[in-house]
Amino acid sequence: MKPPPHDRLVFLGPPGSGKGTQAEILSAKLGVPAISTGDMLRAAVAAGSTLGERVDAIMRRGALVDDETMAEVVRERLAADDVNGFILDGYPRTVDQAETLHGIVDGDLHAVLLFDVPEEELIRRTLARRREDDEEEVIRRRLEVYHRETEPLVDYYGRRDLLRRIDGHRTIDEVARLVEGAVGGAG
Ligand code: AMP
């Protein structure tokens, strides 16, 4: 699949919806970076940087890092040389973050893919994956936070005609094909 000049995509969905996996797959196909803010923050924690120290406890309890900190992180990453297109995985997560992103990209976003997966399946998947912040109570907390803070983005991007729904309750390969189809129509 040949990349259109810049794909600027956002992958939206609850924890366990498979958006990280699909972002990596599509990144390899399109040759644009998959940018996971969760991975960036985990790397900061592992490196023991100032940012890492600041966000460690917040991440452990499944809460969101504040919008201002995230704006700095994303602004800096998107300014890097290798970025003309991107697949954002895990950002934006609030309406405020969506407004920030709008400013950073000057309103030039191509599509937002929403990964739909039933709640019981999300819990099953995240429990099986078991990262450090994946204790059951924390998983439920992360889902709650998703519904409260992030789900409003479904309407936000729906109104802007950017939203494409992906049935995420399928095999990885099947979902990858749906993603490709959804993005193919994006350019
Ligand atoms: P993720 O790997 O995307 O599930 O992110 C793991 C954790 O990093 C989240 O539970 C949040 O604590 C934090 N995080 C990642 N992205 C964001 C974001 N856009 N806004 C606020 N917190 C974030």
Q: How many strand segments?
A: 5
Bound heterogens, unique:
adenosine monophosphate
Distance between the termini: 13 Å
User: What is the N-to-C order of secondary-structure elements (H for helix, E for strand)?
Assistant: EHEHHHEHEHHHEH
Q: What radius of gyration results from the CA coordinates? A: 16 Å
For the residues shown, what is the average pLDDT?
A: 92
Secondary-structure-based class equals: alpha/beta
The shape is: globular
State the strand order across the main sheet.
Answer: 2-3-1-4-5
Helix content bin: 55-70%
Sequence stretches where pLDDT stays below 50 over 5 or more residues? none
- Total of DSSP H or I helical runs spanning 4+ residues: 9
Quote the beta fraction.
5-15%
- Let me know the largest β-sheet: 5 strands, parallel
Tell me what the structure shows.
This protein has 187 residues and is α/β, with parallel strands linked by helices. The protein has helices spanning 19-30, 37-47, 50-60, 67-78, 95-104, 119-129, 136-150, 152-159, 172-184, and strands spanning 8-12, 34-36, 86-89, 111-116, 163-167. Strands 2-3-1-4-5 form a five-stranded parallel β-sheet, sandwiched between helices. α1 (19-30) crosses α9 and α2 (37-47) packs across α3. The longest helix is centred in the last third of the chain and has 15 residues, at 136-150. The structure holds adenosine monophosphate. Adenosine monophosphate binds at residues 15, 37-38, 41, 58-59, 62-65, 70, 90-91, 93, 97, 142.
